[in-house]
User: What shape does this take?
Amino acid sequence: MNLASDDLTFAAQPKVSVCVITYNQERYIRECLQSLVTQRTDFPFEIIVGDDCSTDGTRAIVQEFVDRHPDVVRPLFQPTNTGGSRNNLEVHAAATGDYVAHVDGDDYALPGKLQAQADVLDRDPACMAVWHRVDFFDDGGDFCSGNSADVSSFRGGHVSFSDAIQLGFVGVYSSLMYRRSARSSVDADRLLLDLHWTWDVLSKGHGHFVDQVLGRYRVASSGSLTVASRRRVRLLTIAHADEFLARFQQHRRDFMVWALCNALLDAKYMRRTVLNLLGFAWRTGSVISWRDVRTNINRMRDIQVRWRHRTRKHE
Assistant: This one.
């Protein structure tokens, strides 16, 4: 069976739910949704679009896709602006598929994305999440191939919970697909970064990185979703780390590596959160060598796409 939503509608229970969050992205949301409704798969899927009370033409474009693909595209139109984190949580909570993918409204998928990621999860019941390479581009026409990242340290594509803790980053949020059963329930009022989702799902098993470009990530777009200022994001990251350290004391060493690597980066860029990170490192109660830190910093650098003017939407 080779299905595409332009050919037929899905009456069956979706196997994959694609969660799209958007706010004031009328310039981008059409391209994003078109890239998803034209995905060819051998399973039914749904696309849940959470529009956070946009004030531009975003909602009208989303409604166009709902009208054209009523059995595939489901809207979640927020009556008031809730903020990116709550909108994100509510959209993911609405997912009904066994597997859940995330795509930001200013990014888009390449052909074969959903099938490739679902196939990995089908083959390996112990795999909780799948990421893939993405190309980076911006509104000015600059482009950087996702193949510039060195992901060889994920041997055979395997991503462990320890990898995710030490690196703090596996792949961009718009490349994530995870098992819905692996996601913990959280209060919609909580402010969460995608780092929390990564650590949460991989605490139940391992992940996989597909060595293939299956999406495009728009850098520093107009209307990019951000949590808050950089300092607030960094402090929220540390709060997430404290939460998981309390739950997974056996990974104290991994958290220590993460904290010291990020403290060094903060010191390099003269960020005030360096002291917060050192305080967290002390709370791990662990001891590591500087060789561990140096090795991990090299890995952190290698897995990042080489983008000179890169501004990450998610920390």
Observations:
- Confidence is low (pLDDT under 50) at residues 1-10, 223-228, 309-315.
- Residues 16-218 form a domain with the Spore Coat Polysaccharide Biosynthesis Protein SpsA; Chain A fold (CATH 3.90.550.10).
